[in-house]
Fold this sequence. Notes:
By secondary structure, the chain is α/β, with parallel strands linked by helices. The protein is 30% helix and 23% strand.
Amino acid sequence: MVYDVFVPKKFLSPVGIDQEKPLEKYTFTALKKRTYKGGQITIGKVYKTADAFTSYIFSFVSDGKKVSGLMNVPYVSSSVPIIILVRGFVDKKMYAPGVGTARVGEALASNGYITLAPDFLGYGTSDKPSFDPVEERFQTYTTMLNLLASLNNLNQALSVIKDSPPANTEKVGIWGHSNGGHISLSVLALSGQQFPTVLWAPVSKPFPYSILYYTDDITDHGKALRKEVANFEKDYDIEEYSPPNFYAWIHAPIQLHQGMQDEAVPVSWSDNLYQQLKKLGISIEYFTYSGADHNLMPDGWGIAVARMLAFFQKELNQ
Length: 318
């Protein structure tokens, strides 16, 4: 199901004045119509020094809020492509820059790519997200879209690093894992851009099932989250916020990886995603790993990285 026309719903306020509902600006149709101008990227302190790259803390502004992240810059002299890394869910109490993206980011940087992994609002030194947990989820889309728009300013930011290679802002790819795969698929649809994208065990089911599926892992078994979702569904058409309804907007080549022993994302989800995207005429290749878990361990990680590097080399003409 694809929605071509978006008509904002309204509700009667307590003072008798019709007002737009605040979260209607996050429907896929509304987000696709938005213009994402981007802004300045700021490079901060060195986070790690390695043989082939240096890691830095960076930040940018998304809809007036600061978002921090981790950037890897390789030691090369020629212009290099950029890969945006999108992690899965991490408990804020356990989070540190690079959690969920560090190993893949270092593999890419060691092979001549600049990588940027946003922390997202509420993580790292980023500003706080919305108090509404549903809106906080939608803010991950706008954060990514604003970061992509800000890449035009990346070379200005890199000028503060001695001997930094120039970034080729015309060659941009995306890597997404788990819920980061959900965000990546959403961003591909909303942007309509041909960003080559690698997905590891992406969450690809319709919203809100895509989050309610995981409520057993929450202390209250999802009671509070189910209440928030129920309240949301009272006022909004849930189909306007469900990414699979808009996969037809995707024009990017995709490489999909799935561990057969994954206990977080069922194999059937990736099987179905592959068939759905293939039916839509989207260029996609699909790899499974018989003994691998959600992180493609223990026997899938190395070959998945090799396939990822070959994919980006091909698609970005590296």
